[in-house]
Amino acid sequence: MITLFSTPKNFTGIFNDIQLNALRSWRSISNEIQIxxxxxxxxxxxxxxxxxxxxxxxxxxxxxxxxxLSDLFKxxxxxxxxxxxxxxxxxxxxxxxxxxxxxxxxxxxxxxLMIGHRWDMDVMxxxxxxxxxxxxxxxxxxxxxxxxxxxxxxxxxxxKKNQWNRIPDFAIGRPGYDNWLIWNARRHFVPVxxxxxxxxxxxxxxxxxxxxxxADPKVILEEDGLNNKKIHGxxxxxxxxxxxxxxxxxxxxxTSKEYINRNxxxxxxxxxxxxIPLSFYKRFIRRYFL
Length: 290
What we know:
Layout: E1 2-6, H1 14-29, E2 34-38, H2 44-50, E3 54-56, H3 69-79, E4 84-88, E5 92-93, H4 102-108, E6 113-115, E7 118-121, H5 132-145, E8 147-148, E9 156-160, H6 177-187, E10 192-194, E11 201-204, H7 223-232, E12 244-247, E13 250-253, H8 257-270, H9 275-288
Parallel strand pairs: 1-2, 1-4, 2-3, 6-10, 7-11, 10-12
Antiparallel strand pairs: 4-9, 5-11, 6-9, 7-8, 12-13
């Protein structure tokens, strides 16, 4: 089984419906999933109670009140009952096949990071995921109405409990922390698996009128976003830099020329201390083998 953890925004306005939809979809997959809700945003305690989730109100945060990724992971891992864990944004609706991949991960790898694309969709009302007909109706609509997001949109992270040595004090919801997690996994030779062709997760579209924001914080950087940028120092990767993919019930290593060519360009970012020899290696492979 699996432990999911997340830190929601205030359950107000559009975020009340969006986040309740997400949390209810998680619980509808299985009553055995451990769900941990962190942070004291308005309505979090009540939402956790509704879906039978554990609730941790106190989280270390930035001066502006944005939770630190480091403390979220630390507290969730301390409370986790299962070895497979998922950090997920609280606006993401999960499909019923979300648990099917667990045997593949545990069979093939001791450590791993599984991520994937999200599909964006306008969802205008609350969905009763306990009702099979309503659930099927939603997913049929999602097939027709949702749009795959770019490779930079990463909203869930599946990993082995206690595999992260140290996570910096990134502010969540601000640029770079997700890309750094991919970079860190690749640097430590942890397989990074793209599950996009297997898991269709729905991101419910919303505005950015929350927590003193009025624009996308990934476009217009404020203090917490700038601090994230200082921390990661451009040590960032995205979904195109996964080195495995989930396909038709098996996990396979990427071997296409397109991937190899891109990977050659990213190796100096992953291993900057080897940038000079890697630049020669890159030129050699591209000249004689691609």
